[in-house]
Amino acid sequence: MPNKNWEDTKIYQALKTRQGDYAAFAFNFLNRPEVMPAIEQILNKGGTTPKDFTLHDAEHSFRVAERMWELMPEKTKSILSDYDLTLLLLSAYLHDIGMSPDYDSVQRHYLYLVEKKEGLSEDEITQFQRWVDNNERLQSLDIRKDLVKDISLSNYILSYYIRHKHNDWSGDWIKKNFSGTTWKNYGSWWDDLIKVCKSHHYGLDHLLGSGFDPRIVAPGVTVHLRYLAICLRVADVMENDPERTPEVLLTHRAVSPGSLVYWQKDSQFTLLLKEHQYSVYARPERALLHKAVEETVQWIENELKLSNELIRLKPLNYSPVGAIEGYEWVINPQILCDIQPRDNAYVFIHGAFRPNMAKILELLGGNQLYGDSIAAYRELIQNCFDAIKEKIAYAIIMEDRDVSEIPTLAKLNKIQISLEQRPDGCWLVCKDQGVGMTRGIIEQFFLVNGVSKRHEIRELERQCEERGFHLGRTGQFGIGVLSYFMLADRLIIKTKRHSNTGYDDDESVAWQFEINGTHDFGELKRLSKSPSGTTIELRLREDVVSDIVAWDEKFRDFLKKDVSKTPCALSYESFLDEDGLQLGPGWTNSPEDIKLNLLEELEEHLEDDDFDAAPLIEEIAAAMDFIVEEGEYQGLGKYRIYIPYFKLLKGNSFYYMRERIQADRHYIVEADGKGYCWIPNNNLSNVSLKGMNIESNLSMSDPDTSLSFFVEFDLEVVDEKRVSVSRRQLMMEELATELKTFFETRLLELVNSRLAEFDNPYAVLNQPVNLKIPTEFYWTYRQPENRDLLWEKIKFPMIESNQKLTTLPNLTYRGQPLQLMRILQTYDGISARWDDGLRLEYEAGFIEEDPYTPLPVVTSLANVWNSGLEMSKIKLPEEWNRVLIMRPSNKRLFLNTNHVLYASFDAKSYIDWSELTDNTLPEEPTDLDCVNYLVHLFSRKLANTSETYFKNKQESIKRALEQLKLKEFYALSGRLLVIIGVNKTVVYSDYRDKTQYLSIIKDPEYLIEKATQ
Predict the structure, then answer these.
(1) Would you tell me how many other CB atoms lie within 10 Å of the CB of residue 599?
(2) Distance between CA atoms of residues 725 and 779, nearest Å
(3) What DSSP line would sit under 690-701, residue for residue?
């Protein structure tokens, strides 16, 4: 049942159909983010579940819930209370949540076991020791004194102790997360839930106790804990779906032989229900699986028999407050079995079982599991990174050097990768000057898939933390050395452990390991001489070599795009190409790389048979520079910020413009019909995990300004409480939101730290980015003699150029020359307005050709307008005092300062009102609500203003006008006159209709005129 979640369970679907207050409460409670969504996420991504045991994830819980529903007769389903259903669903998902215990509990027990005798309470120590004493394999271990240095043993102890404690820890989880919440009329619900969840470990006597007796918890609401416990116990033991034990995951987890059979058996049999009786059909392939199937059948039968005995001793209709009806259990405890060897494959005796290791190795070493050889690339690079990081860390710790020397140490080391042509084929050779390996590391860790982190690495990590830096070892991706065989058919490893790394000198000898494929038997031998570090030599397979040029390009591309930060210099050379590749140390993206990223989209836009974009792109790249910052975020990782800007002729600008100075005049040069300027609109973010790029949920889209930027973040510390990692994806949960807020704040702070550098003749262009009030205002003026634009100081009065006015030369307004401004078209088709972010003083001007369409004339600069509200005030002639709103085509909204309602309007209150309401008139509006509502009718940029649009809102319009004691007001929308009245709203477009309501303006004060020659 893939892709099924808790909302798809039949229990939840039944609850959704219920009516009444209790059902509504239960429905809302389950949907709280901290309840079922959080529980399901923990089960899926908890990351602390012991790997030996079959999956106790959300899909397992889903199937348990479905089995519960299957077990109950229809009559009982119909009478279950809303709280019965809720407890059933929660118990299905929470009874095994202790198998994914919180990281802190696991880590405290682990550290106490392997490192130091502190961190556990006396009660926890007692329980731990008691469990150890009851384990025959561990009886000689005194956990109060002994440190467990054997990693496999410590893993065994911790895994099986988690399984032992998971029932209690499930209860602890419920108590910790829900004890502070109450249900409607049911205060002890979480305590009852713990009883049900723990019930599958209780015996008959405990289940017969009064604590499981049914009772009324609210008026008309019965909870039958004993019945719920029976359903959970039986459903849980019946949950043996093959999806719980997928074969690929089985091999990937390297499940121990003792647990292997319990993984494999689930795919060997089918459990079916017919007429209240279960039957098992199985054709096992092996005797051990046959035995495991029979054991499973016996477990199920035992639970069914216990349930029947429980019901016999305490019938389901028993209740201390009187008999209850409807709870029934009709399942036959006897299971019909048809278990036979498949095709007489074996004789069922107690024999031995050996897994097909060759097939497992073939699967792990091939593309079947990972689908792409990129896993091998990652494993190769990450092993090198880890070796270098370890070597540098040991130098700091063992030689007592200062952490500030890490960059210097990084420069002393390198990783060299080369593609070589040899007589026997093409070889990929990777040499690192890292820490190297001993024989023990090769045998026990490097060649062992799925092995845990070495204890000395854990110790080194702790020592690094004490010194104030992170080791940053990867250990997150890949399947170990087996992944190399996605690329190669032969592997040679040459290595020597670096001195001063905690090993004896006799272990720091050179070794060579060689093997031909996963089916071969490898040879390990001493080398007489070898420098410290490791060399990996991979002979590429024939299918790779068949198109070696394409492969070489793919690998080179991988290094460029997937390696974001290196602990030392990394180089790649190929016999196919003289040009090598050099990366690091540190961040691998150079300023030139970032420029290319930012220009890529513009270059694609400019592609045209008639336009050669290359010279323009080169000019932009040459003028581009960056505001840069590098830092660390909360000890979790490093970041780097690049904010692009351009060094132009008269200062810094966030826009690029081609320019020329001629006769002391400053011109903006058009790019052959493509526009006049360009601002990067790429908001790029790159997330990596310990130096390797990875997909993440960090989104830096929709910033608060027009700022363009390039942000890199390398996560060095994986806090499993805040981060979940898969092979190719990093989910940072709320950390992603924190990072977004942090970066947005830092971006603005960085820009603000350089404000003076951008207060220059380009300040009006820079203002939408840095929100800085310019001290000088420059913009473009059209020159009749050519297409270039003159860049000069803004003069008032002025008006944005439009078709009506460009045909009228030498215009004046109130006796002053009227300046015609224009939108500055960018190379990629985005319009840059000179007044973005500025608040201006407007008056209306009229031309004789169109006396009923007022044009907003800017008479002066008022102040910076940062609200984002596209609304300005304008002074209309007194003859037009009834006009409240003016909206020229494709322009912002204007409010007439002469209208009686203008005094009641407040821009800030309008913004608050629009954010806090759904932009409709409230039931009991204030005068301010009414004004805001009427203004809002025109706040949208409608293509046309129709009477139908207002008709649908007429009732609200009437209420608003009557409260404001106003019969009507006028609005101008483009060439339309709209009269909004108490009873009706009318739209006039005809010239003659307008004359009935608006006079022709003839006052010279408001006329735009042609200057006399």
Answers:
(1) 22
(2) 51
(3) TTEE-EES----
Pairing of strands 871-875, 838-847: parallel
Specify burial of residue 481 (Cβ count, 10 A radius: 0-12, 13-18, 19+). buried
The phi and psi torsions of 953 (rounded to 5 degrees) equal -120, 10
The Cα–Cα gap between 924 and 527 comes to 90
3-state class percentages of the chain: helix first, strand second, coil last, to nearest 5: 40, 25, 35
Handedness of CA 1001, 869, 746, 594 (dihedral sign): negative
What is the 3 state secondary structure string of 243-270? HHCCHHHHHHHCCCHHHHHHHHHHHCEE
> How far apart are alpha carbons 340 and 792 in whole angstroms?
94
The Cβ of residue 458 has, within 10 Å, a number of other Cβ atoms equal to 17
Burial profile 718-756: b = 16 or more Cβ within 10 angstroms, e = fewer: beeeebbbeeeebbbeebbebbbeebbebbbebbeeeee
* Cβ neighbours for 135, distance < 8 A, ≥ 6 positions apart: 160
pLDDT for 559-585, tens place per residue?
999 999 999 999 999 999 888 999 989
Q: What percent of the chain lies above the pLDDT cut of 90?
A: 38
* DSSP annotation string for 480-491: GGGGGGGTEEEE
CA 878, 883, 888, 892 torsion: positive or negative?
A: positive
> In sequence order, what are the residues at sequence separation of 6 or more whose Cβ sits closer than 8 angstroms to the Cβ of residue 574?
418, 419, 552, 556, 580
> Using an 8 Å Cβ cutoff, are 149 and 141 in contact?
no
Q: Please, are residues 511 and 496 in contact by the beta-carbon 8 Å criterion?
A: yes
CA 958/CA 956 separation, integer angstroms:
5
* Calpha distance 762→666 (Å, rounded): 12
Q: pLDDT, tens digit, for every residue of 697-740? A: 888 876 555 788 999 999 998 877 788 887 668 888 789 999 99
Burial class (CB in 10 A: 0-12, 13-18, 19+), 173: buried
DSSP 511-575: EEEEESSTTSPPEEEEES---SEEEEEEEEPHHHHTTHHHHHHHHHHHHHHHB-EESSEEEEEET
DSSP assignment of 760-787: STTHHHHHHHH-PPPSS-EEEEE-TTSS
Q: What pairs with residue 221 in β-bridges?
A: 218
Q: Which residue has the tokens 């009030």?
A: 773
Q: Using an 8 Å Cβ cutoff, are 11 and 68 in contact?
A: yes
Cα–Cα distance for residue pair 191/89, rounded to 1 Å: 15
pLDDT of residue 1: 43
Q: Is residue 243 a contact partner of residue 1, using CB atoms and an 8 Å limit?
A: yes
Q: Please give the model's pTM, rounded to 2 decimal places.
A: 0.60
Distance CA 955, CA 231 (A): 58
Average pLDDT per consecutive 10 residues, the chain (1013 residues; last block may be shorter): 79 93 92 91 68 64 91 93 94 85 80 83 82 69 80 78 80 88 89 89 86 89 93 86 42 46 60 88 80 84 90 90 87 89 72 49 54 78 93 92 93 95 95 91 75 62 84 66 85 90 73 84 84 93 91 93 94 92 93 91 82 91 96 93 96 95 92 89 86 88 72 88 78 89 92 94 89 86 78 88 75 89 83 75 85 86 54 88 85 87 85 80 91 85 70 93 95 88 90 83 88 66
Residue 468 in tokens: 């104030």
Distance, in Å, from the CA atom of 364 to the CA atom of 486, rounded to the nearest integer, reads: 9
Alpha-carbon distance 713 to 740, whole Å? 11
- Please state the separation of Cα 411 from the chain's center in Å: 34
Query: How far is the C-alpha of 712 from the C-alpha of 687, rounded, in Å?
Result: 6
Closest among 806, 810, 862 to 835, alpha carbons compared: 862
* Closest C-alpha to 497, from 574, 439, 558, 566: 439
| Phi/psi at 102 (5° precision) | -65, 145
